[in-house]
């Protein structure tokens, strides 16, 4: 029998035994009965105890774990001798660093199984192993402590007692300090993080907490909670509230906060990396060295690697061969079929280079068998390269729809959009495939209807609007489909369908379809798309400009600001961009006529007739514009009338320009007299009015044979007389006497008003 002289035994510090429950008692019996039965007739109790200790010290392994478990549970088993509790022996084995390392690990292995039935003694044994010089033993001890958690939170209570006791003041590097640091690590591994955090918060609140231990506690708290507070009181306040949550809620909140912190960290890393790249733009060698490192080093933050790939794509677009080589080199790394997010981003960057020579490097990832993410990246890259050779591989993906396992809608959507970006439609193959796709999705190919993705239908509409059509009747068939999609229940589908109709310049049915949709459409953003499409049709087909303007002009007065802006943008383009419209002023003329048709005043056209896209000065007319002088001066006169109230000085200049340009200084015609009336109106509206000069311009209209013209002339005359009466009262009688000669032809109301003015100027008695 082993005694105090046996190697591995020492007095140590006695571990107190504690009660264990019924479950622990049953497990102990289950562990020990087979051994007791095996030696029932061949060993006495002292011999059995001697064998257990030898198994632990010599055999170790599974035999050692079994022996340690029986020795640890001895207080409840009376058949192993009178010695009773063997915690001192186990403690001696652990604290004597000259014992076999396997023996110390056997004790910890046994405690992982049965230690939770005598928590406090087990905790004491584990604590003494936490500072073991053998890393395999100390780490085993750290992993053993969480296994002792059973019921009642005894392990958390015991750890808290240790961290709030003398351990908190232990000197760095000492055995006790190593134990304290290991206890904090063990708390991070405990099954209940809420209880563990409570222990750490309590430890943080203790006075005279060692600096290194405090730092370790704070690090653990940040990792376990994804929070960071400076003051212990803030930790306590937060914890007292957070501990009320369930364990599932706690873990979910921590996971979310970790994700947020990770995103912020990656965002900051990316921001600083982009700053570094900006500083290195002048040093190409250093720039590519950083980009290569970010692309190839395995520990690179993913956001930084993503930023490096994007920069390489941009450099490749600018013709940097080294950037292209780095991207192509990364495509060859690793398996081709397996998912690789970095490779997917590289594929996309290769597309962004716009280098069509790289098409074959990308197309290989389109074929069936590759991961969906890789196929998505390749489909988008083929479209970005816009190489005609990419059409057939993309059509091959569309053909998979008729196979046993059709591609998912998100892949089909990218393929369709890429076909639109390429814009090639050899022999109508692309448009035919897209129309077949829509019919197939609706069950039109003698198959069951597919749950149609509105995003996919919208993509088809966008692509059809980007293609060219050379086959007989092809544009009409596409227009019919787009017109149908323009009536779809989903407004997003209607938006892209009407936008596509605007590009169908080869189809006579497209404009009537847009006109009909403008009448029936209710969604504002779709109506905006229709206005845009109507404007595009006018630009592509000048014969439609006048009708397009008639549809657009009413929307200048719509309640929706976006519709007003879109209508104005398209009207400005239609007024000047169609061929010849800058020279013949036809667009501006159509615009003014459209405004007049809905009874809008001349002032509403002024903004269209001024500025860079408006009327040029008379002395700046080109030779081509000189051929359309009559239309030009008619528009200039309209602009002059529109500016009478807002800018009379500009109106006066325009009236003068028209009179000089048409050589109408002598008022021989009604037009000439009308211009002189307009000029008179402008003169009396100036900041410094000129009523005398204005009055001389009115007299010819007062003598006209036309009653309407005379009435208009007297209206202007009274405006002038009122201004003269206010500016120069003494000159009014002479002006009235000068008009008496033509008063007989004035309307009755004008004669009555003239009489009032005469009475007002007549001298009274005593004057």
Question: Can you put this structure into words, describing what you see?
Answer:
This protein is an all-alpha fold and 767 residues long. The chain contains 40 helices and no strands. It has helices at residues 22-38, 45-59, 61-72, 87-95, 101-114, 119-129, 135-147, 154-163, 175-189, 193-204, 211-225, 232-242, 247-279, 284-296, 302-317, 321-331, 341-352, 359-363, 372-385, 391-399, 409-422, 429-441, 454-464, 474-485, 491-502, 510-520, 524-540, 545-552, 561-576, 581-584, 586-597, 606-609, 623-626, 629-642, 648-661, 670-684, 691-702, 707-727, 732-739, 748-761. Residues 1-44, 76-83 and 444-449 have low confidence and may be disordered.
Strand content bin: under 5%
Helix content: 55-70%
Overall geometric form: elongated
Taking the alpha carbons of the first and last residues, their distance comes to: 154 Å
Give the low-pLDDT segments.
1-44, 76-83, 444-449
Q: Give the number of helices.
A: 40
Number of DSSP-assigned strands? 0
Largest sheet: none
**Mean pLDDT figure:** 87
Q: Strand pairing plus helix content: what structural class? A: mainly alpha
Rg, rounded, reads 47 Å
Layout of helices and strands:
Blueprint (H helix, E strand, L loop, with lengths): L21 H17 L6 H15 L1 H12 L14 H9 L5 H14 L4 H11 L5 H13 L6 H10 L11 H15 L3 H12 L6 H15 L6 H11 L4 H33 L4 H13 L5 H16 L3 H11 L9 H12 L6 H5 L8 H14 L5 H9 L9 H14 L6 H13 L12 H11 L9 H12 L5 H12 L7 H11 L3 H17 L4 H8 L8 H16 L4 H4 L1 H12 L8 H4 L13 H4 L2 H14 L5 H14 L8 H15 L6 H12 L4 H21 L4 H8 L8 H14 L6
How would you sum up this structure in a few lines?
The protein has helices at residues 22-38, 45-59, 61-72, 87-95, 101-114, 119-129, 135-147, 154-163, 175-189, 193-204, 211-225, 232-242, 247-279, 284-296, 302-317, 321-331, 341-352, 359-363, 372-385, 391-399, 409-422, 429-441, 454-464, 474-485, 491-502, 510-520, 524-540, 545-552, 561-576, 581-584, 586-597, 606-609, 623-626, 629-642, 648-661, 670-684, 691-702, 707-727, 732-739, 748-761. By secondary structure, it is an all-alpha fold.
């Amino acid at each position: 029998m082993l005694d105090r002289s046996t190697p591995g035994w020492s007095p140590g510090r006695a571990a107190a035994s504690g009660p264990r429950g019924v479950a622990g008692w049953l497990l102990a019996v289950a562990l020990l009965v087979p051994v007791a039965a095996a030696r029932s007739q061949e060993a006495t109790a002292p011999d059995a105890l001697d064998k257990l200790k030898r198994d632990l010290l010599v055999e170790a392994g599974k035999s050692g774990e079994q022996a340690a478990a029986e020795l640890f549970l001895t207080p409840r088993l009376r058949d192993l001798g009178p010695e009773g509790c063997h915690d001192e022996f186990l403690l001696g084995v652990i604290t004597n660093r000259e014992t076999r390392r396997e023996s110390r690990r056997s004790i910890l292995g046994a405690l992982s199984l049965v230690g939770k039935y005598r928590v406090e003694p087990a905790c004491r044994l584990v604590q003494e192993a936490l500072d073991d010089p053998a890393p395999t033993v100390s780490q085993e001890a750290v992993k053993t402590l969480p296994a002792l958690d059973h019921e009642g939170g005894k392990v958390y209570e015991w750890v808290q007692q240790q961290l709030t006791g003398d351990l908190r003041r232990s000197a760095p590097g000492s055995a006790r300090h190593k134990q304290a640091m290991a206890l904090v690590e063990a708390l991070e591994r405990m099954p209940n993080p809420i209880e563990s955090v409570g222990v750490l918060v309590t430890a943080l609140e203790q006075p005279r907490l060692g600096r290194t231990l405090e730092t370790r506690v704070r690090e653990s708290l940040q990792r376990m909670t994804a929070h960071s507070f400076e003051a212990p009181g803030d930790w306590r306040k937060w914890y007292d509230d957070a501990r009320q949550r369930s364990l599932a809620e706690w873990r979910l909140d921590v996971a979310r906060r970790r994700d947020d912190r990770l995103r912020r960290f990656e965002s900051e890393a990316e921001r600083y990396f982009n700053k570094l790249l900006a500083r290195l733009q002048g040093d190409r060698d250093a720039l590519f060295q950083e980009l290569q490192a970010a692309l190839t080093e395995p520990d690179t933050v993913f956001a930084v690697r993503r930023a490096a790939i994007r920069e390489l794509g941009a450099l490749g677009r600018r013709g940097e061969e080294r950037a292209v080589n780095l991207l192509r080199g990364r495509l060859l790394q690793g398996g081709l079929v397996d998912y690789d997010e970095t490779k997917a981003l590289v594929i996309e960057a290769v597309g962004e280079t716009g280098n069509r020579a790289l098409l074959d490097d990308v197309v290989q990832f389109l074929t069936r068998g590759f991961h969906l993410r890789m196929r998505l990246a390749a489909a988008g890259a083929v479209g970005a390269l816009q190489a005609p050779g990419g059409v057939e591989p993309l059509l091959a993906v569309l053909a998979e729809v008729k196979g046993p396992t059709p591609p998912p809608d998100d892949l089909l959507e990218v393929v369709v959009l890429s076909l639109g970006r390429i814009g090639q439609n050899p022999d109508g193959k692309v448009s035919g495939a897209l129309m077949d796709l829509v019919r197939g999705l609706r069950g039109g190919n003698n198959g069951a209807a597919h749950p149609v993705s509105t995003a996919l239908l919208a993509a088809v509409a966008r692509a059809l609007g980007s293609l060219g059509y050379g086959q007989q009747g092809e544009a009409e068939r596409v227009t019919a489909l787009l017109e149908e999609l323009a009536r779809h229940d989903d407004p997003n589908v209607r938006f892209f369908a009407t936008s596509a109709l605007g590009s169908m310049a080869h189809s006579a049915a497209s404009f009537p379809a847009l006109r009909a949709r403008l009448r029936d459409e209710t969604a504002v953003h779709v109506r905006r798309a229709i206005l845009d499409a109507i404007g595009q049709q006018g630009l592509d087909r000048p014969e439609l400009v006048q009708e397009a303007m008639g549809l657009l002009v009413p929307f200048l007065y719509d309640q929706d600001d976006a519709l007003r802006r879109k209508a104005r943008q398209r009207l400005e383009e239609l007024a000047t961009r169609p061929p010849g419209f800058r020279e013949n002023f036809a667009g501006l003329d159509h615009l003014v006529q459209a405004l007049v048709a809905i009874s809008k005043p001349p002032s509403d056209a002024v903004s269209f007739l001024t500025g860079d896209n408006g009327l040029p000065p008379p002395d700046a007319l080109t030779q081509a514009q000189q051929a359309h002088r009559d239309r030009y001066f008619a528009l200039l006169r309209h602009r002059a009338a529109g500016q009478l109230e807002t800018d009379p000085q500009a109106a006066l200049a325009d009236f003068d320009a028209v009179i000089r340009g048409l050589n109408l200084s002598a008022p021989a015609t009604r037009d000439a007299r009308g211009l002189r009336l307009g000029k008179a109106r402008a003169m009396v509206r100036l900041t410094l009015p000129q009523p005398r000069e204005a009055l001389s311009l009115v007299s010819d209209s007062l003598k006209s044979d036309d009653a309407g013209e005379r009435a208009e002339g007297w209206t202007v005359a009274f405006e002038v007389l009122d201004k003269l009466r206010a500016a120069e009262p003494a000159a009014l009688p002479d002006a009235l006497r000068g008009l008496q000669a033509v008063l007989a032809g004035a309307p009755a109301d004008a004669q009555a008003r003239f009489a009032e003015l005469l009475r007002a100027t007549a001298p009274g008695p005593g004057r």
